Amino acid sequence: MDVKKTKAKQSKLKTMPVIGGVTVCLIAALTWYVSTQTGGTSVKRNDMLFGTVKQGDLQVEIEGYGALRSDKQVLITSLTNATVQEIVLKPGALVTADSIVVQLANPELQQEVDSAVRELSQRKGNLRQLKLNQRREILNESATFAELEARYETAKVKLEAQSGLVKSGIVSALDYKDSLVQEAQLKKRLNIHKQRTSALKLVNQEAINIQQEQIQQQQGQLDIAQNRLDRLTVKAGFNGVLQRLSVELGQSLAAGQEIALIGSVQDLIALVRVPQSKAQQIFIGQKAIIDTRRDKIVGTVSRIDPVVVENTVEVEIALPDQLPASARPQLSVDAVIVTDVLANITYMERPVNGKANSDTRLFRVDDSNNYAMRIPVKLGKEAGRYIEIIDGGKVNDTFIVSDLSLLKNSELTIENF
Questions:
Q1: pLDDT tens digit sequence for 363-382
Q2: For the chain, how many structural domains are there in total?
Q3: Taking burial as the number of CB atoms within 10 A of a residue's CB, which of 32, 117, 292, 359 is the most buried?
Q4: What one-character-per-residue DSSP string does 89-143 give?
Q5: Residues 96 and 242 both lie in one domain
Q6: Could you tell me the residue range of the domain that residue 317 belongs to?
């Protein structure tokens, strides 16, 4: 008996729509792939960065970052061992030369001053006693001299009287000769006493000079001890701002240990760091613009550090005497150093990954602003965020400067949403 098979035919009819759907999907995928390979890629305008070609003078600038520093700074250190007794001012305070920053304490210094005062007083007393003793000696010598002088005058008168009487025989020749010898001896003793008195005065004066020198030495020791004691009251030393305070209340300090750093307020410089690769373009005397985020200050490159630190070079920029209120020590700033001026060139915003003196390919936007085509462009000198266009672009051309290096197609459609 024969049996009819009808289910197989029905199953074949049911699979036909599935095959058709798969085929449509494959065709759609193929169409999308072909379109991406033939210039059908679309980008949103708001996601892109555009640059317009211009012509004119362009400054070659190198950007850097750094901070303002005081051109004049004074580091205050401890002269002796001491303890921080009081902190009067804190960092950021404006100070004058007589402003007290910190009060230190050291009882031993006070003892040294007291001891030096007593020693100086004793030496001055010794000098007064020495002068009194010398005056007494001079008076004694003067009395002796007066006595000798009186005896000499008497012997002289006697000799003169006897010289007339000896001829008449009233005075014997022996008495006359005795008077003559006495007069000569007294005269000689009188001259010797004069010399001794003069020498004694010189000796006394030298003794006074020695004592005065000792007093001066002791006065110097007292001045040193007093200065060390006075230095316990730590003062700023000049007008400026307290930039750093390195001590705490009750801290014990050793001689030479840092206490504070005082810096000038108006006499400022800018220390900025620039990339090592661009440092060779910078020379002393070039113009620089310092941005404090509130004001812009025009300065001049005054020093270039030869040492490279983390692929950067430090450049010192001298600033004018008159500075805006926003300029303060330790303030972070941005800097632009003008290294050259390119006259009457064609330029545009520097594309992402665009390098100076190189060939690249950029998307140029057509007149409708809805379509872009990749074309070769030759780049020249770089000037900050701008770069010279040597070939491939003319004035008012618009290029996409965003990074599109991953796209292989040469055409783009720009969407406005």
A1: 999 988 888 999 999 999 88
A2: 3
A3: 292
A4: --TT-EE-TT-EEEEEE-HHHHHHHHHHHHHHHHHHHHHHHHHHHHHHHHHHHHH
A5: yes
A6: 45-69+266-415
